[in-house]
Every structure is written in C-alpha cells, then in structure tokens.
From TrEMBL:
Protein name: D-methionine transport system ATP-binding protein
Domain of life per record: Bacteria
One Gene Ontology biological process: amino acid transport
Span of domain ABC transporter: 5-244
Gene: metN
Keywords from the UniProt entry: Amino-acid transport, ATP-binding, Cell membrane, Membrane, Nucleotide-binding, Translocase, Transport
One GO CC annotation: membrane protein complex
Organism: Faecalimonas umbilicata
GO molecular function terms listed in the Swiss-Prot or TrEMBL record: ATP binding; ATP hydrolysis activity; transmembrane transporter activity
Length: 340
C-alpha cells in the first residue's frame, strides 16, 4: 500500500534578496496512514517548510510530494484544491476569524467548498460536540481561552473530512495542562476517524505523548527517522541527542568525582535496577540528574550517577548494571562519554 504522504528527493530553495537559501535538501520521507508523525528540529531547521509542502502551500523546487500515491506536482489547480480539502491544518496562533462566531468559523471552509448552509451548520454542530464546545457555538474567539480556540481550529480543520491533519506548533502557545488535553483530543481524532496526523513541534513532551513515528530535521536535511521508541532510545546523531537528552544532563561539570551516565533503552525499568544495584553492591550513589521518559510503559532516557570514589566499588556497580543490559557510559568531562 502507498504511504499516505511520500516525499521523493524534495528540495526547496527560497530566493531572497541576499541570494538563494536552501530550506529543504533532498528530503525522502514516508508517512503511513494512521500515523501520528512528529517532525522535530531546532528553530529554522525547515520543519514548517516541510509540512507546508504536504499541502503545497510551499511548492518544492525539486522532487515529488505524493499524497496516497498521487503526485501533487502533476495536478491542475482544480485537482489541487480538491486534494487540499483532504488536508486540514492547525497553527500555533489558531488563525480564527475574529469577527465570526465559533459556529461560523467552522462553517467557513464548508462554505468555500460549496456546502449548503443548513448542511454546513449541521456538520459544524457535530464537530463542536466532538471537540467538546457545543455550548460555545455563539461565542466569539476573543471570549475563548487558548485551549478552546485551538479546539475550534481543530473542528474547523476537520470540517471537510480530511484524511490528514497538519499541526504546526499547535500546542506551543498553551500551558502544560491544556497541551495535554489538546493532545488527548488529537489522539482521539486519530483513532476514531483514522486521520493521519503530522505534528511539528519543538517540545519533546508532545512527541513522547502521542507520536508513533518521528523525523528529525536539521538545516534542511532529514537526519533521523524511525519509530518514536527507536529515536528516543537510541538517538544516533548529535542533533537528535541534543533534542532528546536535555541540555542540563549533557553539560554536567564533572569536577574530579566519578560520574556515569546510565542509559535506559526500554529493556529495564529504572527503580528496581538502581535500587537492586545499591543493595547488591552495597554502594552509595547520588543521582545528579535524570531525564527519563515513559514511552509505551517502558523506561527510556538517561540518568547521571555519582559513583563511589573507590574504584573497585564503582566497577562492581557498573558491572552490575551492564549485566542487566543497561548501557553505562563514563562521563569524562563536560558531558563527554566513553562507553564501557
Ligand atoms: N518564504 C521564505 N523566504 C525566505 N526564507 C524562508 C521563507 N520561509 C522560510 N524561510 C527560511 O527557511 C528556513 C526554514 O524555515 P522554517 O520556518 O521551515 O523552519 P522551522 O524549522 O519551522 O523553524 P521555526 O520553528 O523557527 O518556525 C529558515 O531559515 C527561514 O528563515
């Protein structure tokens, strides 16, 4: 079966007054139907440009973008318009029409698609129920909280029954509790309506919470892609490590004592492993920092432990962890490591 979104050698160059700027460089990517696909990267990496190529808001300068096997570059304007109705999009700043009430905001794309007013209204009411805002139909965006505005934007994006929903930093302007609620709604939409979701974010918590697949973009290139579990447990590139492991844990000042980084890759749970090591090896360790994640009920991430000064004890403890398939790396200086 064709992937629902496929990029084949996609590049995008912007021609600016300072000369050409290549925002995307030979991207190859496949998103399968039903995925919640996270695109992560530092600011300016090219995430928005990549996602805007999915609905041809940005037209690649090279390569092909295929939706369900059909090349967008070969479509005429009418076909492209129809195709775009199958791709909804939500944004960080919601992009609602401030002078229209909630119901009319949701009806807007339906009006453009030529749906009869009464039918549009009915569909908008259904959507309001799905996003949990039936009581706000007559409110104006200015009367809503950020989370409620994003719910309206989601309802509007779903109005034309899209197969794909693109989310460009959709939770970046929201507090953590509201973010969780919006992510739960997105997951529900993914599962109930089988809508493929593509999420751009700089927040790892968002990816951990709902994405099953991840792509990491750096300076216009796709540097890593795979299941969220794989990318989080074994980030390969420097940029992926930087994104996955928080900076504090990476830049530990060592200052003479012996430290190790213990990496959990989903094969063990943290509590028993460390507790058993302390009991069995009779060592004292200090946990200097931890950046642990729980993905699909398994422990991923890293922890920096200060080991006992006596070499034998420290070696014993390290050996104990390694025997349990836990990766232990010695932290030599400023976060540099040597794997045991
Ligand atoms: N229309 C444009 N004209 C010129 N340069 C552009 C244009 N759109 C984007 N760029 C440049 O392309 C690069 C990638 O931008 P893009 O918005 O895709 O990055 P991003 O990863 O989404 O970053 P952010 O998280 O900061 O939005 C940036 O350097 C940006 O300045």
């Amino acid at each position: 079966m064709n992937p629902i979104v496929e990029f084949k050698n996609v590049s995008k160059t912007f021609y600016t007054k300072n000369g050409p700027f290549q925002a995307l460089n030979q991207i190859n990517l496949a998103i399968q139907e039903g995925d919640i696909f996270g695109i992560i990267g530092l600011s300016g990496a090219g995430k928005s440009t990549l996602v805007r190529c999915i609905n041809y808001l940005e037209v690649p300068t090279e390569g092909e973008v295929r939706i369900a096997g059909r090349d967008l570059g070969k479509m005429n304007q009418k076909e492209l318009r129809r195709q775009r109705q199958e791709i909804g999009m939500i944004f960080q700043n919601f992009n609602l029409l401030m002078q229209r009430n909630v119901l009319d905001n949701i009806c807007f794309p339906l009006e453009i698609a030529g749906v009869k007013k009464a039918d549009a209204r009915k569909r908008a009411e259904e959507l309001l129920e799905i996003v949990g805002l039936s009581d706000k139909a007559k409110s104006y965006p200015s009367q809503l909280s950020g989370g409620q505005k994003q719910r309206v934007a989601i309802a509007r994006a779903l109005a034309t029954n899209p197969k794909i929903l693109l989310c460009d930093e959709a939770t970046s302007a929201l507090d953590p509790t509201t973010t969780k609620a919006i992510l739960a709604l997105l997951k529900e939409i993914n599962q109930k309506f089988k809508i493929t979701i593509v999420i751009i974010t700089h927040e790892m918590a968002v990816v951990e919470e709902i994405c099953n697949q991840v792509a990491i973009v750096d300076a216009g290139k796709l540097v890593e892609t795979g299941s969220a579990t794989d990318v989080f447990s074994k980030p390969q590139t420097e940029i992926a490590k930087q994104l996955v492991y928080k900076e504090e844990a990476n830049q530990l000042e060592v200052g003479g004592k012996r430290y190790v980084r213990v990496v959990f890759d989903g094969n063990s749970s943290f509590e028993p492993a460390i507790a058993d090591m302390i009991l069995n090896c009779r060592v004292r360790v200090n946990i200097m920092g931890a950046d642990m994640k729980n993905i699909d009920g398994k422990a991923y991430g890293q922890m920096i432990l200060q080991m006992p000064d006596e070499d034998v004890k420290a070696q014993q403890a390290i050996h104990y962890l390694e025997e349990r398939n836990i990766i232990v790396e010695e932290v030599t200086a400023h976060g540099n490591t040597g794997t045991h």
